[in-house]
Design brief:
The protein is α/β, with parallel strands linked by helices. The chain folds into four domains: about 10-45 and about 140-245, Calcium-transporting ATPase, cytoplasmic transduction domain A (Distorted Sandwich); about 65-130 and about 255-325 and about 665-885, Calcium-transporting ATPase, transmembrane domain (Up-down Bundle), CATH 1.20.1110; about 345-355 and about 525-655, HAD superfamily/HAD-like (Rossmann fold); about 360-525, Calcium-transporting ATPase, cytoplasmic domain N. About 50% of the residues lie in helices and about 15% in strands. The protein has an eight-stranded mixed β-sheet, sandwiched between helices. Strands 10, 11, 12, 13, 14, 15, 16 and 17 form an eight-stranded mixed β-sheet that branches. Strands 1, 2, 3, 4, 5, 6 and 7 form a seven-stranded antiparallel β-sheet that branches. Mean pLDDT is about 85; it is low at about 1-15 and about 250-255. Its main location: membrane.
Length: about 900
């Protein structure tokens, strides 16, 4: 006899599934303490308390500790720790007692703490934001509780629950099938196989079958492609096969996006620069000054100055801010890194239904084959739509609504009893139900797409008489459909057959020799907002491509009404047997594709990506899942089927392209601010490198003390935390932005030397004018004590000038226009940069701080010199921007 206990629930080799699949269903129900009527609500609560929520746990048992480790274990903090350790030995351990100084080490540790704690806070905010946002998206399962079928949260599924499944559902837990009807399931998330396989409740596995292929078991994470079924849950959460697989792969990282790769490449560039420049600075200063210990300390400080310890913090802050902003506009971000892909997308592929149209289908006409409205056509269509247990779409609801208004549907329900059904699938493109009337006569009622219905019919009913379906009748039917299509109506055919097969043996093979009875014509009018939204998306540089299973006439009609220019239309069959080059040209030149299968939608997206496009796909049905997985960024809506919502990177709370257009703008804003920090930091660091190399080569002393360099870097990095709150130029937001590091070197070589020019001017003014005036002599004629004072005054002067130029470069390079005159940063950026520069300027004038930081007395008039240099710097930067933009369209 089957024994199921807590030990069984933690097996990792699917032993439980292997045992259950071979037992009688009644025994399994008994051992699980379940019945076909479902658990009671009180029993379900007890089991939920015992086993926990039906969720696969995170790979870390303590996510906060995991975030803390991630915040500090970065390449940049690693470099700082190494440098702090070296400084500890060079400044404290290996020096005389009266020269021991821990200030440099303390500053480095403060930098590590600020970067790490800020990153930790942002990571926690990210996690909390995603969790709270996802709570706004409903993911439910049809569960039988207290004898009633009801939609309940999927995370509340427990062992012993009875689950009802139809096309489009995700399997919420591991379950044994109790009943199935033409049930096909895709298990690609577990076995990688793209083709769905049939699941049969009454078929037990063979000895040689892999447990993943058991015909009577469904596993969490798989999805129902067609048909229907009912099963009992035997494992939830971490105890499922999917949960065990997730744990075994916990050490594997998620697939990297282009954004992740780009950030990694930037980090490599900066760390490589540090690895090359720091030793070079050490050698130059050691050789020219002869003091190798001070040269080492200065090289360490230089390396710290070149380390962008705030990069991870600013990237995370940007993404969190973007996700929160999107949430305000009814857009839920499931995967943070998808925000930049959203902003980069230059093609949006979408179905027309519900996106361009109102998603409110109306049954306009229920004609017989003579185009006359007859109650019989509506009655047959009602029987088909009402009695199906699969996924009722908008057309089914429209049929039921009209039938309720025009017919006595209660009487129809009394006269007909459902016997069986043959669920819809995307290959047949039709669905059937079998009913029995009071005369015990069985009737198969089928509705579906025109071509597929004509293929399985051989007779027609005209004027109450049954006639053979010949070529003439076929052409007449298609002509009438085409005429209605041109009026914007979507048309399906209705057919029936009496006494099709013995009870209990109905299948797709019975859908043959049908009698065509009439047309069902539906109107799905365009949304009032669609034309406006498409115009806005076009202005944003996004090309809309319609990928639909509908026919050309209806699609043209809707497309024309919403302002799409439709020159060429390809059908799914046109894409078959084409070479790769032919497909690339076809998807490039055409924006409307009709009569597509789900696989063809995915193929079109793959070809578009191969053509160099960043593709977003918006879908809400089971047939959209393959295309969503193929796209760079997938978008769905809260009302979508489970598989679509699970696959989506971004979920709209309302299916409206205007919401989408706003989300695109936010995505570009996030991307732009991230690139802004990266480019400004790269140019600033490169300029500092040049300045330090020049100073090290020609000055007889260090241009700035290590402690001063560290504080300078700390102040600049702190002010950069405001960049995620900056705004972007409207022109920048008007086009898609693709991630690329190819243009970064050019940006560095244009703007890095610009700041170095003014650093070198500052060196000259300090060395030949300011310092001699303060000391009373030139450096060459100075005594040892005067030389020390000379160098301290020089350090104070360059500290002030360098801090101001670094803060002003944010304003100078954030926008192509002239800063403070033609363009303005947000208030928080302006105040953070200017206030930090003012604080830094004040430090040499505050005696205790100046003494601790070893600043010399700097004359007040030098501040006027710095102001003049800043004005000239901004002017030169503006000229260089114009040179740069002659070859590059945009600055950032």
């Amino acid at each position: 006899m089957l024994k199921i206990n807590s030990k069984d629930r933690v097996v990792t080799d699917a032993t439980l599934a292997k045992r259950i699949a071979r037992e009688d269903k009644s025994k399994v129900l008994t051992e699980l303490g379940a019945s076909v009527n479902g658990l009671t609500a009180s029993e379900a609560r007890k089991r939920l308390e015992r086993d926990g929520f039906n969720e696969v746990s995170n790979k870390e048992h303590h996510p906060k500790l995991h975030f803390l480790a991630d915040a500090f274990l970065t390449p940049f903090t690693g470099v700082l720790v190494i440098l702090a350790t070296l400084s500890f030995f060079t400044d404290y351990v290996f020096v005389p007692t009266n020269q021991k100084d821990l200030s440099t080490v303390i500053i480095m540790l403060v930098m590590i703490l600020i970067s790490g704690i800020t990153s930790f806070v942002q990571n926690v905010r990210t996690s909390d934001a995603v969790e709270s946002l996802l709570n706004m998206v409903s993911v439910t399962t049809n569960i039988r509780r207290d004898g009633k079928d009801q939609e309940l949260p999927t995370k509340g599924v427990v062992v012993g629950d009875i689950i009802n499944l139809t096309a489009g559902d995700l399997v919420p837990a591991d379950l044994l099938l109790l009943r199935s009807k033409d049930l096909f399931c895709s298990a690609s998330s577990l076995n990688g196989e793209s083709n769905p396989v049939e699941k049969i409740a009454d078929q037990k596995p063979e000895d040689e079958d892999s447990y993943l292929d058991y015909p009577n078991v469904l596993y969490e994470g798989t999805n129902i492609v067609s048909g229907s079924g009912m099963g009992v849950v035997f494992a939830t959460g971490d105890q499922t096969v999917f949960g065990n697989l997730a744990r075994s792969l916990a050490k594997n990282k998620n697939k990297e996006t282009t954004f992740d790769i780009g950030i990694k490449n930037i980090s490599k560039i900066l760390l490589t620069m540090t690895a090359v420049i720091a030793p070079l600075v050490f050698l130059i200063n050691g050789l020219t000054k002869g003091d190798w210990l001070n040269a080492l300390i200065f090289a360490i400080a230089t390396a710290v100055g070149l380390t962008p310890e705030m990069l991870p913090v600013i990237v995370t802050s940007n993404l969190v801010k973007g996700s929160v902003e999107m949430a305000k506009h009814e857009t839920i971000v499931k995967r943070m890194s998808s925000i930049q892909n959203f902003g980069s997308a230059d093609i949006l592929c979408t179905d027309k239904t519900g996106t361009l149209t109102q998603d409110k289908v109306v049954l306009e006409r229920h004609y017989n084959l003579n185009l006359e409205e007859k109650p019989k056509v509506l009655e047959l269509s009602f029987l088909n739509s009402y009695y199906q247990t699969g996924m009722k779409d908008l057309m089914d609801k429209a049929i039921i609504d009209v039938a309720d208004d025009e017919l006595d549907t209660n009487n129809i329900k009394q006269n007909y009893q459902k016997i069986d059904e043959i669920p819809f699938d995307f290959k047949r493109r039709r669905m059937s139900v079998v009913v029995k009337n009071k005369q015990n006569e069985h009737v198969l009622v089928t509705k579906g797409a025109a071509e597929e219905m004509l293929a399985c019919s051989n007779r027609v009913e005209i004027n109450g008489k049954i006639k053979p379906l010949g070529e003439v009748e076929r052409k007449e039917i298609l002509a009438k459909i085409d005429e209605m299509n041109r009026d914007g109506l979507r048309v399906i055919l209705l057919a029936y057959k009496k006494n099709p097969a013995p009870v209990g043996e109905f299948s797709v093979t019975d859908e043959k020799e049908l009698i065509l009875a009439g047309f069902l014509a539906f109107l799905d009018p365009p949304k009032d907002s669609a034309k406006e939204a498409l115009t806005a998306l076009k202005q944003d540089g996004i090309t809309i491509k319609i990928l639909t299973g509908d026919n050309e006439a209806v699609t043209r009609n809707v497309g024309t009404q919403v302002g799409l220019k439709i020159d060429k239309v390809y059908q799914g069959k046109d894409l078959e047997n084409k070479t790769d080059d032919e497909l690339k040209q076809m998807v490039q030149e055409c924006n409307v594709f009709v009569k597509l299968s789900p696989q063809q939608k995915a193929e079109i997206i793959k070809v578009l990506r191969a053509n160099g496009h960043t593709v977003a796909y918006m879908g809400d049905g089971i047939n959209d899942a393959p295309a969503m997985k193929a796209a760079d960024v997938s978008i769905s809506v809260d009302t979508a089927v489970d598989i679509a919502k699970k696959t989506a990177d971004i979920i709209l709370l309302h299916k409206d392209l205007r919401i989408l257009e706003r989300a695109v703008q936010i995505g570009r804003q996030v991307f732009g601010n991230t690139m802004k920090y990266i480019k400004i930091t790269l140019s600033s660091n490169f300029g500092n490198i040049l300045s330090i190399l020049v100073a090290s080569s020609f000055l007889p002393f260090l241009p700035m003390l290590p402690l001063q360099l560290l504080i300078l870097d700390l102040m600049y990095g702190t002010s950069c935390l405001s960049i995620p709150f900056d705004k972007m130029n409207r022109q920048y937001l008007s086009e898609p932005r693709k991630w690329s590091t190819k243009k970064l070197p050019k940006f560095m070589f244009y703007f890095g030397p610009t700041s170095s020019i003014f650093d070198i001017l500052t060196f000259a003014i300090l060395f030949f004018v300011v310092c001699p005036q303060v000391v009373g002599t030139s450096y060459a004629g100075a005594t040892a004590s005067q030389k020390l004072l000379f160098s301290l005054v020089f350090s104070a002067g360059w500290f002030i000038e360098s801090l101001w130029t670094q803060e002003m470069v944010i304003h100078a390079l954030r926008d192509p226009r002239v800063p403070f005159i033609k363009q303005h940063a947000t208030a928080i950026v302006t105040w953070s940069t200017i206030s930090m520069a003012v604080i830094g300027t004040a430090l040499p004038f505050i005696t205790p701080i100046a003494k601790a930081m070893k600043f010399g007395p700097i004359p007040v008039y030098f501040l006027a010199v710095v102001f003049i240099l800043l004005v000239l710097y901004i002017a030169l930067t503006t000229v260089v921007k114009k040179w740069y933009m002659k070859s590059e369209k945009y600055l950032i």
